Amino acid sequence: MNEKFRYVLKSFSWGLISKLIDAGSKLITVPLLISYFGKVDFGLITLAISVNAYLQLLDLGMNTGAVKYFSVWIEQKKYKLLDYVSRTTISFYGIIGIINAIVLLFIAFYGIKYFDLEDCQVEAMQEMLFILSFLAIVNWGASVFNQLLVANHKIAIVQQVMIVRSLLSLLLVYITVYFNVGIVTYFWWFSIINSIQIIPLAYIVKKDKLIKNYMPAFKWNLFQPVLKYSLAIIAIGVFSMTATKMRPVILSLFGTEGIGIVTEFRIMETITLFIISIGGMLIKIFLPISSKIVLNNNPKEMSNFAQTATFYTTVICVLLCFPIVINSQAILRIYVGDEYINLSDWLVIWIFTIVAYLHNSPVSSLVLATGRTKILIISSGISCVLSLIVNALLCDVFGVGSAIIGYGLYILIQMSFYYIYFNRKILQLDSKAIFISFIIPLFCGIVPLLFLNMVKFRINSIYLDMLARFFVWIGVFGFLLVVTNKIEGKGRLQLNALVNRNLFR
């Protein structure tokens, strides 16, 4: 394999490993901590972290905006501008960190009474909020170094640091249980582990000469374009999060099945969260590439990237999603029992909407790289509002399925805007060619799925049955991909040539 082509594969592989280790770590540590601290006291940790999570939406916008501009300036070798703006970003995050700390201290002193805590829990909660406020500036500052490394095509290093963090968190839980550590002491070291990631990230950024020093700068006039663009991304993020996070609220407000309907939604959401997080990682990988392609303003290169990356993105999405589809009933039976097997059809529909959403990651990154986000904000707002209305109207008819239908409408409207407007008007791309790049691997995944639905396995072990179905599916899927001559033939040559021209010039 060409050395230069390995960037995308290496970044995705390390990201996938990081997500798997993090998920596995939480799968192990959460039950242990609940058993050790008790359900109520463990809830304090969750509450403290949740209270501090409200400002993360701002980081979503700045991450995208900073990576977009940093990537372009690295490509143009404007290192002086990069240094000024990145150090001004440190100042910006410092201000956010101070505000974050003040809010946490205010809650600790004056807002603690609203949490309905026992007297013995108030002091522990206050101490945890003090810890978070003390580390707030450091935690926000780490974002700058993360963004610089992603922009410089070193996202793999960022993921490696995340892996070390997950393993240290796992070790901390073992030490806590073995040495009978108290909840506040545990939370202190847990917060330290999450904060010290700034050290290796800052060191590598300085070593790569992406930043001259760590002193904050105040070049607000140079920083203004990054902030302006980031605010637009935040607006898009608000609509996206609302369409996603408001669904259980809508179910509880308009449903007639009681709070149990929210539990059903949460069960399916837990199964799909890992795949959705992978999708967010794909856009982060593609954005530095897209920023350089847009900067070069070469329609042919943009078209090649959109078609080829869409094909491989769809292959990845199918590989992640379809194993859940073919074993949906078995997964639900193992996870929550036979009582919830009836959710399998809705789970399958949800999975298909995720594939439809994630396949557009390369084109979405191109649109974000252009900086023309006005219509994107409008389309996000329209699709968000209509999806929630449909969710509410169909609650009595479809129950938890109304949330899936509403989300499907959100994705359908978004995809329509891309294929009808963004592809043609903004990027001058051939929507038909991009759709073909999506539909071919999707078709290759659906064919063995239909075959498995017709052939009934008779294996007594549910786990062996799942493995057998998976291996049959992936064997036929791989064979069909080879037959289409996409992976081993023209598709790989196109992607290699594209990466050679754009990523490592």
Verbal overview:
With 505 residues, the protein is mostly helical. It folds into two domains: 1-226, no CATH class; 246-505, no CATH class. Helix content is 83%, strand content 0%. It has 21 helices and no strands. Helix 3 runs parallel beside helix 11 (260-296) and helix 11 (260-296) runs parallel beside helix 14 (344-358). The two termini are 18 Å apart. The model has no long low-confidence stretch (mean pLDDT 84).
State the main characteristics.
505 residues, mainly alpha, 2 domains, 21 helices, 0% strand, globular
Task: Please provide a brief summary of the model.
By secondary structure, this protein is an all-alpha fold. It has 21 helices and no strands.
Largest beta sheet, briefly?
A: none
Cα(first) to Cα(last) distance is 18 Å
Oligomer kind: single chain
Rg over C-alpha atoms, rounded to the nearest angstrom: 24 Å
Number of strands: 0
Poorly predicted runs of 5 or more residues: none
Structural class of the secondary structure composition? mainly alpha
**H/E series, N to C?**
HHHHHHHHHHHHHHHHHHHHH
With helices defined by DSSP (H or I, 4 residues minimum), what is the helix count? 21
- The portion of residues forming beta strands comes to under 5%
Q: Considering DSSP H and I runs of 4 or more, what fraction of the residues is helical? A: over 70%
| Tally of individual domains | 2
